[in-house]
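Hey everyone, long-time lurker, first post.

I ran two proteins through the pipeline my lab uses and got sequence/structure pairs for each. Pasting them in order. The first:
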Amino acid sequence: MAAAAAAAEPVAIARNDVAAATTSVSQQDDDESVTTEGADDVRDDPALTKLVSVVAGFERANHEPAANIPPRREKSRLLQFQDSWYKSYPWLHYSPTLSGVVCFVCAKAHASGILKFETKAEPTFINSGFFNWKKAIQKFTAHQNSSCHKQAVLLLHQTTAGQPIVAQLSTAHQKQQQVARRCLLKAVQSTKYLLRQGLAFRGHVDDDSNFHQLLKMQAETDVELRSWLQRTTNFTSHECVEEIQNIFADSVLRTIIADIKNQSKIFGIVVDGTQDINSKEQLSLCVRYVDSDLHVHEDFIGLYQQDDTSGRAIAATIDDMICRVGLDMNFLRAQTYDGGANMDGKYNGCQAIIRDRFPLALHFRCAAHSVHLVAQHATEADAIIQDCLQWVQEVDKLFKRSTKFHRIFETIVTNSGAAVHSSNIKPLCPTRWLCRHSCSLVSCRQI
């Protein structure tokens, strides 16, 4: 009898559970929607400690086997949870405390407080639990497509990833900046190459210029550069390219000045002026110094427009140029000019004015100019040499202007058996004898 009583007690308990489950199922069946009802209660529910215990300690949803989940009876049918639902709805989380399933994503997001402003929360899938297996697929699908669930997935992903929307936008912006910076460096390198080789940048049309063609050649193997060039950008404009050129020029100039200051300190200047194609006077300045290995360097510093060609104005310009590049005029030890009165004048010449302020800046007349002038006057003093040079110039003009006489000249040179064959006569410059020394020797041999 005792054994029979013990066996009857679990049956009674099971019947009571089924009755309670049936009542709960009936209550959930009467609810046509679980979307908005009780949303305010979820936000203000003081029993959030119980909610935290549902998802606390879980890094992923608890997929309890269906065999361990109690079935639910509806009238004459016994409804069982299906394991296949975990595959279709991976966010399902079984809570033994609630004896039902909740949405792991929504519960986790709500427990973290990131869904407190969501007005369409679903209490059934957050804190009360769902166990109406009859309408499981219908309710699971509706919840998965709800705005609350989508918002929870997005916010929870951003929280776990550690990058909010602002940070993600910032990351994309940084990537674009990196690509633009790398493409700009390509343009800078192309500018450096053309400057180093002394090639022209522009053409009659910008697309046919050396600069643009060099970039297009690199873009053939660089997809990012090709896309960057197709965008509207000012980094390849004339103004930007000229700015890059000025940056390179300033860099070279700073290097020269640093070498002078660190290795020599004292220096000399070589100044000369000439007119450009627009009949404007241009003053060139070169610095001459000796490095620590006793090697002589002569570097070009700059070209400056000179409106006033008087000695005092030129001296002021030189003083200004030296100060601008960062050198000290007190370390000036030599100054070299041509033989012009405004440069070489004893009282009002540029050298006299500078030496009056800086006595250690000795003046040396340009030896090349002196030799040129001596040679020029020597040739003018002898009529035979003067006529000979004039005839060489006239013959050269004849051969260049007439195709017939040019072929005759080539035939003569070929039949002469000369070791060096020249297709024309080298022109002579009457004021540049040192520069044209080789031309003079070749012309004499040809004559």
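...and the second, right after it:
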Amino acid sequence: MKKSLRRVLGCVVAGVMIVSIGCGDTGPDLGTPVDISGKVTLDGQPLSDVTLNFYNSGEGVPAEQRAFQGKTGTDGTYSIEQVYPGAYQVSVQPGDAGDAGEGEDVIAEDQGPLARYQSGSELNATISETQTTFDFELTSGR
């Protein structure tokens, strides 16, 4: 009888452990990804061939879902697919500077009209399922 009770209890414990493993934490619910778009201008003129970097530093956001990048066309418009809702800091990099790898030269942050929109940019975007268009009207003055 004791052996039967031990077997039953052992099976129950094993079953509970298996079920609880399947119910583990899957991470934060980041919402449904959305496509975002907009236009970038500098002193009222379309800004072409710049890279926009959207960075979400929110707590609990996995690294692979923190940064999104897009590039403007000749008319200054951009679109980025599958961006998770949240608050983002946005930086604007000239040309392919946003794609520069380690050791590659990029334009120094103290040069050119985009300097204040690069590292430590003042640009922000709060993305939601209903807010997906972000126009950035940049100025070359400091």
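Reply from user beta_strand_b:
Welcome! Quick read of the second one: Strands lie at 34-42, 45-46, 50-55, 67-71, 77-83, 86-94, 123-127, 136-138. The radius of gyration is 24 Å.
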